[in-house]
């Protein structure tokens, strides 16, 4: 079943201004854990707020559980968006906030909430606005997990958390997802941190979706050629390279994976190895376009 | 430089890990294989990715599926894997060995002698 | 995972309860306002010498000061619950714009009832203080013991006025949330136009409005006037903010 659908969605915050999302089309299936990946400021948060029904489209149509999420009580009751705009009255203690959350969410897992609360050493009588940024996000993440909402959205949930807490949070997320499969969106600009958790990737760039599909497919789109510099260069001229690194007389070049069996065999004979790349390299290649890497900035400066 | 294995898609690594379990006898014929959820939990990966690793083994008929019960090691799974590893891994290694030997000017006799020596060192008469 | 099918009334109830717990500040500010009201209410002394041997001290407490301050409090509270911070709090849990409005309005309504009742009681406390200090008292307004019916009508009227002011604040707050340009507009309407009006000498809208409620002698008609006005104000508030984006 389809959980989320975007049909030709455009969003700009002021009429006539540059649009944050541009004629976006995609759909996300139920119970898939999808990573919403993109660099800062490409529209990840806007996309998530549209799904949660917090903001409205400029044109096009968003469907969540086959309803327009904006002003839909059904979508709100079945969705939780965890981000840094989550706020709670300063009159409530953390313990009271959890109690309120319990009332609002039908599937609330009070036991899990309590255990995570203790594990991350929160004080029951502390107040939300006095927490540090990392602690605040950890607390919000606990609500997001324990709510067990059929659609759970985490927008950069680990901002400000230290490394240990980040790892613990991702582990908790995975374990809870395995125990209670549900549709989860998780955004981050650090793909390498979350790639193993994800089934699908929704790549956002300049308000468009250059890639949406299984993370393994993204990985398969690119390979690295490793070999003697002159031999590799000879093969790369007719392909665009997405970054290269020289180690002595050897060179690694990131290229699109479009080699036929014959070509692969020929490369092998010439002593060039085709190496699979981590998803993060593929992501960087796909989002950096053909501008090349940071090295190229300096290379062209010296050759000019 | 990252080594080639490290960048291997995780589901292939999962499949290879189960293969090794079957080859070294940890998993024997008709024994139940870990579910995708157990694998996901153990390796801290998405269950769908773990499932892809299992599908890879299903396609190669190294494991089989029993409806509602899970995946089990095929009765000839062990043999298939041995044959496959001989074909793929061992041949690959030999090819590399020969290329390196050629580069260094080591002839076939010297090579065999070197292999014998290594075998004695590790204290095994036969493989 | 199965989907929950929420009912609006349930969510409104939950939001109302949440807001009751979260915004206790509304009630503590009411208490402070009324204490100030009592304090200033009894401080109207006048004393003169009737003869060389007799000094008369005239201490009065009209009981109006707490009521006026309660109306100010109601107006501000009405505005307050429509602000961004309150909205983001509501949308951190399950809500849509209508449920947010309904629950906020219920909160304001409840606060107004409490405010309206306590305003009259605070007035009575003021009178009691004057009595205790001077040991003689003349009651010119109905008290609970001599005319309970009038006393309760007094309380009901106080409640209705409080609701009216809270509703006005709520509506103005909602308009401001829609567009900040409303603020100068309100300033013009409230200050500039009446001032202008005086020099022209005609009857202005605001005076008419005050007369519309203030000169009503039948309680039932007054009640209807207030209820209809508040319902219209609320509907306007919902209409202008039903497309508001939250947690931006």
UniProtKB/TrEMBL annotation, chain A:
PANTHER family (alphabetical): ABC TRANSPORTER, ATP-BINDING PROTEIN (PTHR43158:SF5), SKFA PEPTIDE EXPORT ATP-BINDING PROTEIN SKFE (PTHR43158)
Record keyword Repeat present: no
Transcription regulation recorded as keyword: no
Family annotation (Pfam families): ABC_tran
InterPro entries: AAA+_ATPase, ABC_transporter-like_ATP-bd, P-loop_NTPase
Keywords: ATP-binding, Nucleotide-binding
ABC transporter domain sequence ranges: 4-231
SUPFAM superfamilies the UniProt entry points to: P-loop containing nucleoside triphosphate hydrolases
Identification of the protein by name: ABC transporter ATP-binding protein YtrB
Superkingdom classification of source: Bacteria
GO molecular function: ATP binding; ATP hydrolysis activity
SMART domains in the cross-refs: AAA (SM00382)
From TrEMBL, chain B:
Domain HTH gntR-type stretches: 8-76
GO molecular function: DNA binding; DNA-binding transcription factor activity
InterPro entries found in the cross-reference section: Tscrpt_reg_HTH_GntR, WH-like_DNA-bd_sf, WH_DNA-bd_sf
Keywords: DNA-binding, Transcription, Transcription regulation
Lineage: Bacteria, Bacillati, Bacillota, Bacilli, Bacillales
Record has Isomerase as a keyword: no
Protein species of origin: Filibacter tadaridae
PROSITE patterns according to UniProt: HTH_GNTR
Name of this chain's protein: HTH-type transcriptional repressor YvoA
Tagged with keyword Transcription: yes
SMART domains found in the cross-reference section: HTH_GNTR (SM00345)
Automatic annotation (TrEMBL), chain C:
Record's keyword annotation contains Hydrolase: no
Domain of life of the native organism: Bacteria
Alphabetized UniProt keyword annotations: Membrane, Transmembrane, Transmembrane helix
Name recorded for this polypeptide: ABC-2 family transporter protein
Transmembrane segments: 21-45, 65-86, 106-129, 149-170, 182-206, 218-240
